[in-house]
Amino acid sequence: MRAKSIRFLAVAATAAVVLAGCSSSKQDGGAGSGDKRTLIVKGSDTMVQLAQAWAEEFMKKHPDIMVTVTGGGSNTGIAALMNNGTDICNSSRAIKEEELASAKQKGIDVQEFVVAQDALSVVVHPDNPISELTLAQLKDIYTGKITNWSAVGGPDQRIVLNSRETSSGTYVFFQEHVLGKGVPFADNTMLQPATSQIVQTVAQDKGGIGYVGLGYVTDKVKSLRLKKDDASPAVEGTIENVLNGAYPLARPLYEYTAGAPSGVAQQWLDWVRGPEGQEIVKRLDFVPIK
User: Whole-model pTM?
Assistant: First the structure.
């Protein structure tokens, strides 16, 4: 799609380093670091580049606040929230009922905030002549029922599967909405540690396929149009098609807090969900709340 997205691949990988040196002290309600108030944001790798861009602009507006952003996956962020290890948890999936139950046992009243939306894009090598797939074909590919591109109208070439790791919220979303809840991926699926790695691997492998957030799609890969079923139109993953509900793999992106937010956390959430924060969402090729 847009070549400008390439530079954000490096940003995503180095977000924690860019903001390193920040105190690990908690936001209002905990210890500060000198004259600076601090906010820790942790979780989804899909959201790292977005959260880092938010943090940079937010700190310009609030020079008395230091924001630390790290990834590790949605599971990592949710676990940190449960163990007082972050102020804000970024997650590319909704929190699970069992996680909410665990939080409740600990006396934590988890609060959910939708801060952006995303289209989960299915990408292949640019030389692959395939331009669209149904969700049923995509399921058959990722469960190992279809192993050659010729079965879906492509060349006689083995399909090479790429996925995020199991700690990723993107992995969970794809599994639940494409394969079916609890349905395993094919044994030969390569689990990549970062979304950018999926893009790089597919760009170098003519048989490759992967799934990534819309903001990570570059001109090094080709994004496929998706069909809900054989009778449905093939829909491109775009901001417009997420907002109008046409794209079948659209998803909200969340931030969670342990209890009602206050102080710096409330300032952050108000800002990222407001006009300035949502403008950054659009600039990075994610989808605004509305």
Answer: 0.82
